[in-house]
User: Which sequence fits this backbone?
């Protein structure tokens, strides 16, 4: 066990898996010599060399397209997209190719790969260094989507993702890259995909969230506890396929639901979660489910803290849903 | 190299034995006949779609022939003749045309969108160009793993305008990946002629932008195609990196069964290309060599026809894939939501049959 | 008035607007001489010439990127993407640029343009000629999304979209390009954006849908009417910003909701609509809202009619929700 | 053209009068000083970010100077000096750095992401390359409308690897759009050197792939930059189509305030470029011409500093944009859902201030 932050934990997972599995390669912009603009791949170039930690030309489409080809060959590429805001030049390769390869080839060409990329706001990044685009991938059949909230999960989920036979989008909440610290075991372990964690137990209202917003939800939960409301906060960890059993069991217990995410509200993942709960536990709901999310605008700069669904906006939602 | 009268210019001879030429010729003829028959099946409403290779057989089959068995080919969508040469079983191809239960792709894709890993053949996709970047990654992986392997990728003139061409060529140049970019310049991208596709003089010279050597070849000259492709594959194996080949040929038919070329090109534009027919040229060569004659031609055509008819008969009488297969292979294991959806579909009423 | 199908009505709208407004240009693959692979732009090349009806190289990114530049200049481009399945090479220009231009420039650079593209299945198109990708655009702030179901609306909505100051994705349901026929006025008229149409009135259950599935919903409504269930079928027409008032009024009346669309269920637009109804009319809901959609697989070929949410699948959903 | 000792090679002289050179020189110096000051402000935590142009001033400002007032420029993100030259008010630029209520972009984008329509200046965006294709569309629109207009677009060496470069160049070549592609080859894309970006010999020769003439110029030679850019702009106006210019220069600083170049390049790599400093070269030229001296230099520096300090003072004391502006300009008119969200935000509690 040692104290690590998210960056260190992810770095540790990458190093371990590259040592264990020679098929694993990393490629992306600035991932090599400089170790990534967030230093997540620091030291790996020195340890594994230019054939396995590869600085590429400036093209996300090239990175992902080439990685797909490597995966078809039988390698296990773990490409990095420098900011998730820059994933869109590669969107065609992800949506049309990566996601559909196993299916369209009747199983002949699976793609075992993980796309790592930082997400989220609160770092003064404006439109293009702050987005949280998960719902644009959750809608695409064939992809798995993961978003850890702490170093332990980050390492364990990344190891599980790399070993998972299907393509995984691994979204790293950059606002807590260094802020989230915790004990991380030294050797190998995995956190299984599609299992949520109950971060705080409670009986009155279920809060679904993930990534950096977990801490805001926990903070809000503490605050409303002072007013006698016990919120159960669930960290989804894997967004898709989501851990439906944990969600439904919690909502059946509490009868109330609040979903919190940074991404814009309209068409965001919260809508999917609410619809799922409606399908599976409608008659247990004692109040209208509530979304606390980013607004339906591009991500702002100066006013970003007003844009984000932080604790101060979650508290009234929790209190409101109790009145419902 | 192969003159229009069927004689061979000696200086670039790829040294194909008559047996080799016969094998390729048979594949070219089979391809042409299947093309014609599939168009008929489509017109009869028995299959939904076909995209053919009329006039491009030398480019397609010659280039595939030039690659070793252990090498890999990434298809565009117009190269079923090459796939058959590489070992795609005819029945498998025809099953795909019908999207039936025997189709290894399980009737999930359109006709002509097949896969054949055992033939070292990729997976046909519709989005233009995506296979190029993947082929580069594949070749690159082989290089990283120090395998002696060349990878060839097919694409059309129109595809050079895609994002993918740029990414593939650029990565291939920088990382010197062992791959052969085989551009079928057939003059058209559906209704768009090459002048509308690029202002460069040739497609081959696009290699300069990427430090990748480019070569232009008469794509209707089987011998030239084999020779040039072999040289490019040798460069791959010798660690000299990628080559861009532009095979100058012509799409003698419509873009696909959905297209009517009369809407956008004059019939007499096609005429000179009829004279350059790549199959005719090889046949004349073989006749001159005393290795071919009318009887053999007739026997070949009959055999091809027979085999095709039987494959169609079997394919057409094979039922559609099982309903539950709809949910397989999205992921390796069936997740809860697909299990639920499968259950819902299987328990519910069946759809009306008609389109 | 004359009888037209969808293709003719859209063609008519384009012709009219090009005659009226010299800033309107069309560009795309095969839109010129051959008049589009679905013949939607037939005759326009002859009438307006190569400067206004432009066959482009094979690059959706080039088409949309150049169209954005034309719009910045002050033209009104109406690019065509041959199949919506091929819009993804242009996704970056749409999501990162087109959608955000007005906002990020503080209003200095609005983009008045309409991207037309055929959507949907049922034409034996397999994975890549059948998709219905609306939710990948609805989630992106700054875009408007339209999907007509009949020739009258197609013409009127397209004219409204071209005159709208904001970027519009205009999704044309290709399965009914020729099958949907109707009277269309000859001259100029518009169908305002963000106004739904009540295609069939009913008191028992609200059905929200759009595009080709409208006819399936109407068919299902007739069938359940025989069993005494009166479905109110709403054709959304504009998907975003959606006509929330019409939706909420209907659900308040019926107390029941079924949403039908071709796109895959997870992260599809139905989830958003259900969440909106939960927010605005939860206590009027007498039963759990239901989704009838495409499955969470790539779009299939042979079994496409089993994949689509056709009438035979809508009927049980309508009967089911009545029991809820 | 401009020798390192400040003398001018006569044969390509763009015939700039001393007054013109003085004007450009002042802009270069102002740009350099502002760059330094902004880095300091960032280190002090007073602004969030800056991306500078240290060493690239001749390329950036010379090319902008070569364009006529009515022409249009599409920026990358490193060209604020050119924007100021074109008429972007300094106060407006600094307001953007602080994202305050006076920033016309309303504090919505990061620092250095400004817009200035009245200066015929586009909108700075982060995603690499997107401005190139847009510039082509813009130039194309002007051509269709038969306006005598040239459009210049800036981008870096790394950006040539993007989808956008390919699309922009290809469309420009095919449609002969009147635009100037101005590639700042500063040797680096963050930590990736040009050898990792492309295997082509030069960036200029990439034009061949698109039928677009390419020219390489010493980007630290102001006169050469002006001369070559003017010639390209003239080609636009004469209907001769696009030109690709590669300006060979060097990014003397880090990529941005977030970057530490010592991690990936040796300090002595920078040294030869210090000797080629573009500002020094022009200063020596002006001194030789008797048009400049130490006093004038000092006065200029003081004036720039003064103006900058005042702009910062005003910008820093200007409040943040109104909360409600968050919802403006997503669409022209506020739709119902944004009206609701605005209402919700305004009625709710305020966020904690700290980051
Ligand atoms: C990304 C994308 N855009 C558009 C299409 C539609 N389309 C299919 S084939 C084709 C023309 C391709 O031309 P070319 O690359 O020359 O190949 P050819 O068909 O001539 O062999 C087009 C536009 C597509 N399949 N994918
Ligand atoms: C699509 C995209 N990918 C990655 C980035 C991150 N990024 C910002 S600048 C840059 C390097 C650009 O290099 P170059 O084009 O040479 O311009 P320079 O910074 O040297 O002026 C990168 C990778 C981005 N902004 N956009
Ligand atoms: Mg072609
Ligand atoms: Mg650079």
Assistant:
């Amino acid at each position: 066990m040692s104290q690590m932050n998210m960056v260190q934990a992810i770095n540790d997972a990458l190093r371990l898996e590259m040592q264990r599995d020679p098929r694993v390669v990393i490629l992306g912009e600035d991932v090599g010599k400089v170790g990534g603009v967030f230093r997540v791949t620091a030291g790996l170039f020195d340890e594994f060399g230019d054939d396995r930690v590869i600085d590429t030309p400036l093209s996300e489409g090239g990175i992902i397209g080439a990685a797909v080809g490597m995966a078809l060959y039988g390698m296990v590429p773990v490409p990095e997209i420098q900011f998730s805001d820059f994933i869109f030049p590669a969107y065609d390769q992800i949506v049309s190719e990566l996601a559909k390869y196993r299916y369209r080839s009747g199983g002949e060409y699976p793609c075992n790969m993980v796309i790592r990329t930082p997400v989220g706001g609160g770092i003064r990044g404006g439109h293009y260094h702050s987005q949280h685009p998960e719902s644009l991938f959750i809608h695409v059949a064939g992809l798995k989507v993961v978003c850890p909230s702490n170093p332990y999960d980050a390492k364990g989920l990344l190891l599980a993702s790399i070993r998972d036979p299907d393509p995984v989008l691994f979204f790293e909440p950059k606002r807590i890259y260094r802020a989230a610290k915790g004990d991380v075991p030294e050797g190998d372990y995995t956190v299984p995909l599609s299992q949520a964690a109950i971060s705080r137990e409670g009986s009155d209202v279920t809060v679904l969230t993930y990534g950096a917003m977990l801490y805001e939800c926990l903070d809000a939960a503490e605050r409303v506890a002072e007013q006698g409301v016990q919120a159960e906060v669930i960290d989804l960890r894997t967004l898709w396929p989501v851990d439906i059993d944990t969600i439904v069991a919690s909502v059946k217990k509490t009868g109330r639901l609040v979903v919190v995410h940074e991404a814009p509200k309209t068409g965001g993942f919260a809508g999917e979660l609410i619809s799922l709960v409606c399908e599976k536990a409608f008659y247990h709901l004692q109040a209208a489910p509530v979304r606390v999310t980013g607004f339906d605008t591009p991500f702002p700069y100066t006013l970003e803290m007003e844009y984000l669904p932080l604790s101060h906006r979650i508290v009234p939602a929790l209190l409101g849903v109790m009145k419902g | 190299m192969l003159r229009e009268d069927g004689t061979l210019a000696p200086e670039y001879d790829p040294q194909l034995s008559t047996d080799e030429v016969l094998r390729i010729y048979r594949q070219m003829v089979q391809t042409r006949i299947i093309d014609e028959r599939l168009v008929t099946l489509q017109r009869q409403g028995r299959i939904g779609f076909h995209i053919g290779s009329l006039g491009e057989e030398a480019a397609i089959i010659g280039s595939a022939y030039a690659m070793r068995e252990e090498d890999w080919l990434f298809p565009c969508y117009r190269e079923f003749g090459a796939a058959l040469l590489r070992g795609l079983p005819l029945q498998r191809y025809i099953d795909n045309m019908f999207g039936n239960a025997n189709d290894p792709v399980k009737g999930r894709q359109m006709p002509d969108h097949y896969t054949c890993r055992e033939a070292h053949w990729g997976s046909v996709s519709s989005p233009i160009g995506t296979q190029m970047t993947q082929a580069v990654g594949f070749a690159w992986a082989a290089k990283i793993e120090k395998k002696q392997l060349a990878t060839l990728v097919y694409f059309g003139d129109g595809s050079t305008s895609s994002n993918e061409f740029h990414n593939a060529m650029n990565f291939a140049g920088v990382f010197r990946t062992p791959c052969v970019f085989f551009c079928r310049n057939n003059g058209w991208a559906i209704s768009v002629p090459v002048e509308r596709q690029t202002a460069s003089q040739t497609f081959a010279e696009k290699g300069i932008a990427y430090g990748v050597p480019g070569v232009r070849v008469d794509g209707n000259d089987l011998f030239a195609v084999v020779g040039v492709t072999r040289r490019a594959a040798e460069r791959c194996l010798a660690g000299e990196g990628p080559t861009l080949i532009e095979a100058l040929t012509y799409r003698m038919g419509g873009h696909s069964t959905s297209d009517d070329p009369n809407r956008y090109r004059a019939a007499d534009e096609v005429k000179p290309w009829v004279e350059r027919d790549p199959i005719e040229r090889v046949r004349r060569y073989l006749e001159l060599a005393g290795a071919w004659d009318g009887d053999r031609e007739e026997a070949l055509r009959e055999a091809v026809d027979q085999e095709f008819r039987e494959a169609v008969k079997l394919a057409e009488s094979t039922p559609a894939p099982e309903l539950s297969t709809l949910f397989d292979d999205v992921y390796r294991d069936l997740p809860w939501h697909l299990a639920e959806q499968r259950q819902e579909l299987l328990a519910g009423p069946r759809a009306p049959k008609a389109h």
